[in-house]
Amino acid sequence: MGRKSNKKNTSKNQGGKQTNTASLAQRILQFLDANFGEEFNSKQIIKKLEIRDALTKGGVEPVLSKLVEAGSVSRNPRNYYSSTQDPEFIEGIVDFVNSRFAYIVPLDPEKIDGDILVKEADLKQALDGDKVRVMVFPLKGKTGRVEGKVLEVVKRSRDEFVGRVEISPRFAFIVPDFKKMHKDIFVHKGDLNGAEHGEKVVVKLTEWRDGDKNPTGEVTRVLGKAGEHEVEIHSIMAEFGLPFEYPEEPEKEAEAISEKITATEIKKRKDFRDVLTFTIDPADAKDFDDAISYRKLENGNHEIGVHIADVTHYVQPKTALEKEAYNRATSVYLVDRTIPMLPERLSNGLCSLRPKEDKLTFACVFEVDDEANVKKHWIGRTVIHSDRRYAYEDAQENIDNQSGDFYQELTLLNVMAKKIRQRRFKHGAVNFETVEVKFKLDEKGKPLGLFIKERKDIHKLIEEFMLLANKYVAEFIFNKNKGKDTFVYRTHDSPDMDRLDTFSGFAKRFGHAFDIENLNTISTALNKLMEDIQGKPEQNVLEQLAIRSMAKAKYTTEPKGHFGLAFAHYSHFTSPIRRYPDMMAHRLLELYLEGGKSPDAEDWEQKCVHSSEREKRAADAERASIKYKQVEFMSLAEDKDYEGIVAGITEWGVFVEITETKCEGMIRVQDMDDDYYDFDQKNMRLVGSKTKKMITLGDKVKVRVVNTDIDRRTIDLEFADNDKKKPRARAIR
Hints:
Blueprint: E1 10-12, E2 18-20, H1 21-34, H2 42-48, H3 54-70, E3 73-75, E4 81-83, E5 88-98, E6 101-106, E7 116-119, E8 131-136, E9 148-155, E10 160-167, E11 172-176, E12 185-187, E13 199-207, E14 216-225, H4 229-239, H5 248-256, H6 263-267, E15 270-271, E16 276-281, E17 290-296, E18 302-309, H7 311-314, H8 320-328, E19 332-333, E20 338-339, H9 344-350, E21 358-368, E22 374-385, E23 388-391, H10 392-401, H11 407-426, E24 437-441, E25 447-452, H12 457-480, E26 489-491, H13 497-509, H14 522-532, H15 539-549, E27 554-556, H16 580-593, H17 601-636, E28 642-649, E29 653-658, E30 664-668, E31 677-680, E32 685-688, E33 694-696, E34 700-709, E35 714-719
Parallel strand pairs: 15-22, 16-23
Antiparallel strand pairs: 1-2, 3-4, 5-6, 5-8, 6-7, 8-9, 10-11, 10-13, 11-12, 13-14, 16-17, 17-18, 18-21, 19-20, 21-22, 24-25, 26-27, 28-29, 28-34, 29-30, 31-32, 32-33, 34-35
Helix pairs in contact: 1-3, 4-17, 5-8, 11-12, 13-15
GO molecular function: exoribonuclease II activity; RNA binding
Enzyme class: hydrolase
Function: 3'-5' exoribonuclease that releases 5'-nucleoside monophosphates and is involved in maturation of structured RNAs.
């Protein structure tokens, strides 16, 4: 935002030389504007602008005086100068990229174009995830980006961190595990709470005085010796603020609930206890929150019921159970355990749709013809009695072998699900089937093996009927009053075309065409690409890149559509044992079915935002636990050369996904000593300055593991053709 003048001002010195005062004024203004809020005297300005010739130095004071007269610059009584520009003030969330700078992501994206770059010195002790108030500088910085300065930390996102204790003779520091925490935390020896050198601990920030380089904290929990399985999992739980145990009060409430289902309660519901019903879940699951019923109707059509555990019958509003369920908002599935939303008495007992037991449910029941077209549907409360509990593998085996319990009904449902699925994709749904890594662990949590979870027809069968129920519940509420009634929707915005163009470039570098003309052709192009890459080394990389190019799904009371599923309206209704938004949907659905009035949306919207945040936290923790096991697995794996694919390139390193294990590691540019490599960001590649050797996204390479760091959950690699083979380092703990 510079000031322009059409008149060219010059001044002469005694020797007749000229200096361009307009140009000098512009330089001074740009400097002061870019350092808004700071004051400088003329000598400091000369030094900062690196003015070396005597003529220009002599022109600085007169130019400053004229700028003061014009009101463009302010001067205080001590002859210090500062910008008079009006800055913009915004609130945003800190994304602490590295130790040198952070980006502030505006809470209101319409107030400013893009994220704001803030140098570490101007962060005012803000940490990653903090909500801050930022002063935006009037002019862009040398990087060409909008820059600013943090004025205050409005709200800390966290004040507890997990890290490893480093004790010296006079003091102690905690080195945080969290990659975006770039400061060690000073701890007085009296505040170590018995922690010893090298142990993992939880540390709480207690003070961070102005001028101090590092914050001060106190150890609140000693987790144990770094590197041990239980300690590392507890470290991840503490890092993401996950609870270690269930509070006593909600546990007591859960234990006090009667198992008895009264005749009065059954009379309020449709009775499906004599209808064939079964559950299909993972072999190790205990919380069965959905069941499917089936019967052939006299008119030749089929009745398919999706029955969901009636959690809100047991978890009442304003109870400790309700409060804790809301706080957790979701069950979290780490690599070796589940951190449940509800206490075990409910999740694995009262609410779980166990076989040979009467259970209370909320249902969406469909009447469909032979082509799986929905002719009628009914939504309401039911009571069921499951005839059989299937593991996915057992149900699939019955379909494949055409034998076993209820194989004919399973086969018919599978045929129906395929028809529904085919229509969904024809209507514009996107087929994302991401690679899911699973570990075989011994009794101490040590990874013995790694395998890729296979998705078979039976998984897709359950998925289709759950999607169908969620869709019809959302449409039922929306159509009831043209979307004016408050409800919890699961929405997914259309993708940004610029991000898709970037992804298209990635796909082409992997040798795949991904051409899109407009939003209407995206799903067709994506589905073709997903089909083309099935079983290929680049499958996981491209699937992850595609997902990152999409908008994030979220919970909201706004009745928007779901792009990925191609549904006009969609909700989450089918997993109330493990998701709080499903409980919210059940409560609102019950209210409307009983003729109640729509509640105020604001309170429900806040719950939606909270649930979306908790969902992200759970996903991040789950990924961290998988990454930990991947690092540990590679630290124990055979010392050999692995085939891999270049999954990412930055100025500091090459990310490679090892094809055999789906583990990702990095080759640091500083360790690539065969040449000096320049980063070509436009083409996402590194180019050797002497050899012109190119390393490009999608390249198939051979690598070897040189180091693993469990604390940081990183794997260091080197190219296998490196003549100077380094000795392999085992896991740093």
